[in-house]
Each structure stands twice: as C-alpha cells, then as structure tokens.
C-alpha cells in the first residue's frame, strides 16, 4: 500500500470524532444522506475546534450566521473567510511548536498567503490526493516512470505550495528520471525550455511512461517552441499521464481554449485526452479537485462547494457565475475550513457531466477583478517573458 494511504489520526479523537470519520472515507466521490449528515457533524466539530483556539474565528462565528448554500447543505454553518485574508494575517489554531509544515502561495515578491499545517492536516490532505489517484488507477508502485515537472526545482528555503505538491505527486510511481522546467540558478529560477524539449525526446526513446505535472502555460510554450524550431512531434509511451495545475494566471494573453490545448498535447506528445487532466486547488484549501475523463472538476466527499454572488455574497443556483466558496473540516491548524476564493466559477449537478462520478462539479471561469496579489502561477508566468 502507498504510504500516503495509511491511516492518520486527528489531534483530538474525542472532539474531532466525525472529522476523523469523514476523512477516513476511502471512496473519493461517494455521496448520499449519510455522507451529508457526517459532513455536517464534522463541520460543527471543526467550527468548535477553531472557535476555542482562535479569537478571530470565535468572533466571526458570533457575528456571521453563515448563510447555507446549495452544495454545502442546510445543516452546515460556514462563515466566510476570504482567501486574501491569509495574505495579510497569520492566524493559527495550534501552538507554533505544533506546526509541521509552512507553505506560501506566491513567488519571490508580492503578497503571499502564509499557511501553517500541523501533521494531521497535511497528512490528511495528502491522503485525499492519494485516494483520488488510486481511484483513477494512477498509483503504480511496480511501474517506473520518467517525470517532467513544470514547476519550481526544489531549493533551500523554497516554501511554495505548488513545488511541494508536484514533488509529492512523484511518490505515486517510482522515478527513473526527473526533469524540472523551472531550474534553480542559485539566485532564482529560470525556465529551461530546451531542457524540456530534450527530456521529451529522450523519454520518448526510453520507452517508460512519462508523467507531466505542473503549470499548463509552460507545457504549451514547450510545444510552441517545438513547432517554431521544426521539431517533429514525439510519441510518449503508453501509460503516460498529464496532470496540470495552477492555471494560466499572469499569462492570459497566450492562453488557448482547454479543448485546443488538450488536442495540442495529444498531437505533439501522443497522450490521449482522457489521460490529460487539469486540477484546482490552493495553499489555503488543499482538498484536491481533479478532472474526470470528461474534464469536469468534481467535488470529493471530504468537501463541499458553492458559488456566491459577487455583490451580495448570497448563494447562487446551479449554472450561475460567482465567487467560488469551498468548505472542508479537514484542517485543524488554521481556521480555513470555509474559504471564499477569488475565482469566478459556476456549479453544476453531477448528472450533467455524464461520467461515473455522481458528485457536483464546477467550472472555473477566471479570476475576479484585477489584484496586485501574485500567485505561484503569476510569478512563474513572468519567467516566460522574453522567451517567445
């Protein structure tokens, strides 16, 4: 069994019994009245946990009734905390000596979300990712693979959440070789597009499956560069997989439609569309949202999603666009169990997808407004300047 599928224990089994039970659910897209009731009970425990340990959340819970929203459930109280709050404030619900991991959300300058994880929280989030990968058959301990990571090469003191995640994903299949697209130079990171092209050519010849993780803009730019140089497409071996994350933020002028992008990957690398998946997540909310084979971001059993009006924050019905609101009781280190994201999204019932996953799914339509805050993807996109 993969080590990330092993049991983890909440910090206080007596007061977080339902949180433990919810996070122990192994089927990532299970749904029904029993799981809804368990989720509501777990959220109540989570709210009490943070209210007892965080003056900020205690006051919020007193002042904010937490309007129920479709997708979250009528019995779930979920006062809103905007993701940007964590860019300006450090609010913990555990002593600092219990912080197991500290990650940030952005690049070398600009405001960063400072997120602190106790061991339970980060292990729980990792187990969620492992269960989604296991669900799709992507944990292959007996099949070595080559990795091309469109993310930051690890470096001393680098705390970026995206770098942590992409390197963690390499635990699900043994690595024969690993190539990082954003190479550490000693003073920063540079995009090594020629190194990526050479890795793709080498990996195609070696015959092992290839796993490509990270920012989609950099993969797109690599394929563009191959075309401009007259380099023919390569055929990556069967079993190869592309799992992307971080979006195109900061480089929207070069973004192409998802269908066109996936077709480009298939054309140049030989990977079929069902083996190309986008993801959504953030350092403020580490629950994994991974596309199904029809490329819809389904909500897993450990979380709930809603969409709220950008002016009133009232919940919106299915299909309408507003702020994405994500809820999960898994986190005990920081009162981030109910986060209002800066992304515009629409929520849809599971049956509108047509895949085997029954849970609701959402579409992200972009960022709301213009902000000086810079995400990991924004910082990374700046490395593309001058490369075209």
Automatic annotation (TrEMBL):
Pfam families recorded: LuxE (PF04443)
Sequence ranges assigned to domain Acyl-protein synthetase LuxE in this UniProt record: 79-382
Protein name, UniProt field: Acyl-protein synthase
Organism the protein comes from: Streptomyces ovatisporus
């Amino acid at each position: 069994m993969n080590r990330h599928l092993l049991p983890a224990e909440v910090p206080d089994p007596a007061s977080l019994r339902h949180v433990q039970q919810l996070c122990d659910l192994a089927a990532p897209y299970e749904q029904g009245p029993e799981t809804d009731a368990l989720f509501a009970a777990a959220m109540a425990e989570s709210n009490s946990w943070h209210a007892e340990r965080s003056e900020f959340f205690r006051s919020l819970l007193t002042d904010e009734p937490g309007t129920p929203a479709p997708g979250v459930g009528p019995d779930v109280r979920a006062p809103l905390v905007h993701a940007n709050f964590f860019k300006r404030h450090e609010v913990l619900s555990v002593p600092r000596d219990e912080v197991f991991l500290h990650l940030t959300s952005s690049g070398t300058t600009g405001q960063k979300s400072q997120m602190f994880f106790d061991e339970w929280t980060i292990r729980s989030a990792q187990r969620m990712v492992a269960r989604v990968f296991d669900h799709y058959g992507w944990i292959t301990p007996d099949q070595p693979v080559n990795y091309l990571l469109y993310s930051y090469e690890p470096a001393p003191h680098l705390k970026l959440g995206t770098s942590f995640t992409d390197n963690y994903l390499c635990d699900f299949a043994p690595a024969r070789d690993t190539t990082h697209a954003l190479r550490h130079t000693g003073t920063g990171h540079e995009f090594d597009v020629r190194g990526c092209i050479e890795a793709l050519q080498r990996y195609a010849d070696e015959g092992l499956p290839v796993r490509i993780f990270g920012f989609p803009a950099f993969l797109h730019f690599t394929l563009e560069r191959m075309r401009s140089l007259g380099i023919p497409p390569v055929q990556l071996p069967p079993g190869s997989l592309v799992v992307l994350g971080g979006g195109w933020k900061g480089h929207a002028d070069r973004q192409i439609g998802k269908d066109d992008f996936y077709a480009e990957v298939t054309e140049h690398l030989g990977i079929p569309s069902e083996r190309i998946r986008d993801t959504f997540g953030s350092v403020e909310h580490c629950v994994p949202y991974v596309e199904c084979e029809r490329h819809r971001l389904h909500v897993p059993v450990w979380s709930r999603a809603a969409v709220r009006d950008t002016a009133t924050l009232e919940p919106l019905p299915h299909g309408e666009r507003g702020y994405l609101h994500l809820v999960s009781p898994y986190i005990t280190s920081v009162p981030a169990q109910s986060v209002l994201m800066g992304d515009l999204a629409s929520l849809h019932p599971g049956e509108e997808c047509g895949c085997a996953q029954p849970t609701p799914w959402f579409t992200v339509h972009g960022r709301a407004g213009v902000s000086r805050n810079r995400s990991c993807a924004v910082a990374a996109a700046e490395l593309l300047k001058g490369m075209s």
